[in-house]
Amino acid sequence: MKTTHNIVIKTIDRLELKISREEYKKMGDNTFGTKFKITSFGESHGKVIGVVIDGTPAGLKFDIDYIQKELDKRKPGQSKFTTTRKEQDKVEVLSGIFNNKTTGAPICLIIKNQDVDSSNYEKYKNLLRPSHIDYVMQQKFGDFADYRGSGRFSGRITAGFVMAGAIAKQVLSRFNISILAYTRSIGDAEDTKNYALENFEQLFQLREKSPVRNLDPDASKQMEKEIDLVMKKDDSIGGTIRCFIYNVPPGIGGPIFNGLESNISKGIFSIPAIKGIEFGAGFRASRMKGSEHNDPWIIKNGKIKTSKNDSGGIIGGISTGMPIVFTVAVKPTPSIGLIQKTVNIETMAEEEIKIEGRNDPCIVPRAIVIVESIAAIVVLDYLLIEGKIPSVLGS
Ligand SMILES: Cc1cc2nc3c(=O)[nH]c(=O)nc-3n(C[C@H](O)[C@H](O)[C@H](O)COP(=O)(O)O)c2cc1C
User: Fold this and answer.
1) Is the model's pLDDT at 313 over the cut of 50?
2) Please, what sign has the CA dihedral across residues 149, 150, 151, 155?
3) Is residue 309 lining ligand 1, measured as CB closer than 6 Å?
4) What is the C-alpha to C-alpha distance for residues 212 and 375, in angstroms, rounded to an integer?
5) CB-side neighbour CA atoms (13 Å) of 56
6) Which domains does the chain have, with CATH numbers?
7) Ligand 1 test: best mutation among 81, 83, 132, most atoms within 8 Å of CB?
């Protein structure tokens, strides 16, 4: 129901809410960042998923193979632990590249949706999936939202984050900044090792060998077992991801509302299914004494460092020059095959739901590269704002 200037939203309790078009447009915020700014677009069952990246320095060699490799780490079907939706996720470049270099103009990258099957979503249209977005999406957008494949709320949206992250990572690597995330735990299987951060390449290779993207072959096997177990029971499982950002110079960030922790957290919480984040010792710090938690300052190779890193490389919202370390909690995939209680929004009766369809039994392995991408986007944004990286790169 549209009027000339207003959009009328029918809410589920049949109240009509009139809002102006301008207000309606503001309802969805799909842009993130200040100088390195990304705008996410597309829906799970629409034509494409994409991203517009504004603020990439000019003169960066455009390495499309690298972007594709990053996307491949996120795409479905890499192992038996992912959804059976079959997508190529092949990156296409629409703008911003000339003579194989970035021009400084907005870069638009897309992937096409190919394996779209909306039948299950039509079947369950009125049944609210527990801990999924159906109810809140209705409350917010009324009958307008595209519910097919969870529309804008789908994990598929994060392909755009990965494409932007791949560009950010390439800029950062020119300044010797690298990022590595890995699966820290799945269910009760936890990798409690502390990794020597200097061995970046070696850790990277180890991670690529593990189907669950962990660094320790024994822990990896345990994690695989945890997923196997829930798959047999039509259930799902959560886990944690740890991320290191190396070589961020000291003094980056800001106090109060502009802290590194604040902005990393904002980006990380834009990834669907993330329910927690901690920096350094995080929640463990609440059980420690000052004498245990404090990181002693030392001189190493003529530079001020700390002998340990429970602060996670950030104090007062500003980088210390130690690796930035954070850990995120990923919830179990909400869509499961087990019978669950729910409500039919059309009849307003309590019913049961058994979700059939193509769902990840565990989101963690596919989310690793997404977490890295968000970290890269945030750090590059800071470095551009603070003038540590120029807007035109030398060759
Ligand atoms: C890579 C990725 C894959 C996902 N796959 C699924 C899935 O197969 N089934 C599902 O129900 N949710 C999946 N999700 C999670 C939902 O999108 C998410 O739980 C939902 O949008 C609600 O948001 P919230 O969990 O952040 O509150 C996935 C998320 C990500 C990041």
Assistant:
1) yes
2) negative
3) no
4) 20
5) 30
6) 33-385 (3.60.150.10)
7) 132
The distance of Cα 223 from the centroid of its chain, to the nearest Å, equals 21
Q: State pLDDT tens for residues 342-395.
A: 999 999 999 999 998 789 999 999 999 999 999 999 999 999 999 999 999 987
Tell me phi and psi for residue 75, to 5 degrees.
-65, 155
Identify the residue whose C-alpha is closest to ligand 1 atom 2. 155
Atom of ligand 1 nearest to the CA of 331: 25
The residue type at 21 = R
Ligand 1 pocket test: pick from 81, 111, 154 the residue with the most ligand atoms within 8 Å of its Cβ: 154
Q: Is the CB of 366 under 6 A from ligand 1?
A: yes
Q: Kindly report the protein residue whose alpha carbon is nearest to atom 12 of ligand 1.
A: 333
Q: What is the pLDDT of residue 21?
A: 52
Rounded Cα–Cα distance for residues 8 and 232 (Å): 45
Contact between 357 and 234 under an 8 Å Cβ cutoff? The reply is no
| Burial environment of residue 265 by CB neighbours within 10 A (0 to 12, 13 to 18, 19 or more) | buried
CA angle, 167 then 172 then 176, to 5°: 145
Sequence-distant (≥ 6) Cβ neighbours of residue 12 within 8 angstroms: 138, 139, 345
Residue 334 beta carbon below 6 angstroms from any ligand 1 atom: yes
Sign of CA dihedral 205, 211, 215, 218: negative
pTM of the shown model = 0.92
Atom 9 (ligand 1): residue with closest C-alpha?
A: 359
